[in-house]
Design brief:
Layout: H1 6-19, E1 24-28, H2 31-42, E2 46-52, E3 59-64, E4 77-79, E5 88-89, E6 103-108, E7 111-114, H3 115-121, E8 125-131
C-alpha cells in the first residue's frame, strides 16, 4: 500500500518512537527524508542517522536523542505543508516556532534549510514542518 504523505509518515514514526522511548526508528528512505535527517542532526535533535540498503527503496535509521532524565529532545513535530495544501512563504514572512525556541524547516531553491538559515540567505520557500 502506498503512503499519500511520506514526510508526515516519517514525522509520525519519530513522534511515536520518542513517546515510546525507543533508541532508534526505521523509516523508508528517500532523498527528502535523508535531507530532513541531516538537518535534524545538524540542529542536534537526533544523535545520528544512517541509510541501510535493502535492495529496494532503502531504510533510513534515525537514532533518537534523550536528556539525562530520559526525556526526548524532540518535544513536538508538526507537518505544515501537506500534498493537499502547500504552504509557501516569502523571505519576509518566515515563521518563528515558539518565539525562536523551535525550528521551522523549509524547502527552498537552495535546499532544505532551517528558518534561521533561510532568513540569513534571504530566501523563502515551502514550510515543510515545525520541530520543537
Amino acid at each position: 500500500m502506498s503512503v499519500t504523505d511520506p514526510i508526515a509518515d516519517m514525522l509520525t514514526c519519530i513522534r511515536n518512537a520518542c513517546k515510546a522511548r525507543h533508541k532508534k526508528v526505521d523509516v523508508p528512505s528517500s532523498r527528502m527524508k535523508i535531507e530532513l535527517a541531516k538537518l535534524l542532526l545538524r540542529e542536534k535533535y537526533v544523535n545520528n542517522f544512517k541509510t541501510i540498503d535493502d535492495r529496494k527503496q532503502g531504510v533510513l535509521r534515525i537514532y533518537l536523542k534523550y536528556d539525562s532524565e530520559k526525556k526526548s529532545i524532540i518535544s513536538g513535530l508538526k507537518r505544515v505543508s501537506t500534498p493537499g495544501c502547500r504552504i509557501y512563504v516569502d523571505r519576509d514572512s518566515i515563521p518563528r516556532v515558539l518565539g525562536g525556541m523551535g525550528t521551522a524547516i523549509l524547502s527552498t531553491s537552495k535546499g532544505i534549510l532551517t528558518d534561521k538559515e533561510a532568513r540569513a540567505q534571504g530566501v523563502g520557500g515551502e514550510v515543510v514542518c515545525h520541530v520543537w
